[in-house]
Design goal:
The protein is an all-alpha fold and about 170 residues long. It is about 80% helix and about 0% strand. Keywords: DNA-binding, Transcription, Transcription regulation.
Length: about 170
């Protein structure tokens, strides 16, 4: 239970405010877990960030796959429909993995590893949808671009513009 509370607090605070802006005391306060227990669960802030990202990766990719499986149409294009829904959520702040890499990745091999795993797993999922490695890699670029543009501009329609580009790629 306390691990879940800590990871819930970490995800909410790190995603909303950024990793460097959040201290372990903030996590303790938000989670209701003592600082001693927090450090028993996660001996360092880096370990906590890794735990947060690993859990977010699993949940994010599961939500995407569930959406794609539940809808009809070209599966590779449904990814962009899901992105639009995600971009319109009130707490959308962009890609947690790109954000974490930007803040900590070059200083933390552990965080870099989780970020790379997420991108490799997403690439593999896209390959499974379209059975075309070069196309999947191009779609991945469109996805990351759309996420970044939507986060920076606050415009969820970046998903539709990326989808339109994907249609050209798929039909080409």
């Amino acid at each position: 239970m306390s691990t879940t509370a800590v990871l819930d607090a970490a995800e909410a605070l790190f995603y909303q405010r950024g990793i460097q802006a959040v201290g372990m005391d903030d996590i303790r306060t938000e989670s209701g877990v003592s600082l001693k227990r927090l450090y028993q669960l996660f001996p360092s802030k880096e370990a906590l960030v890794v735990g947060y990202l690993e859990r977010r990766d699993e949940r994010w990719r599961r939500r995407l796959a569930e959406f794609v499986d539940a809808h009809h149409g070209p599966k590779i294009l449904l990814v962009f429909d899901w992105l639009y829904e995600w971009f319109t959520e009130p707490d959308f702040r962009g890609c947690a993995f790109i954000n974490s890499f930007g803040e900590m990745g070059t200083r933390s091999p552990a965080i870099m590893s989780v970020v790379r795993h997420h991108k490799k797993a997403l690439r593999a999922y896209l390959v499974s949808l379209c059975q075309d490695v070069p196309l999947a890699e191009q779609i991945l670029l469109l996805i990351d671009g759309a996420i970044t543009i939507a986060a920076i501009t606050g415009d969820p329609d970046a998903a539709w513009r990326a989808r339109a580009a994907a249609v050209v790629l798929v039909s080409g």
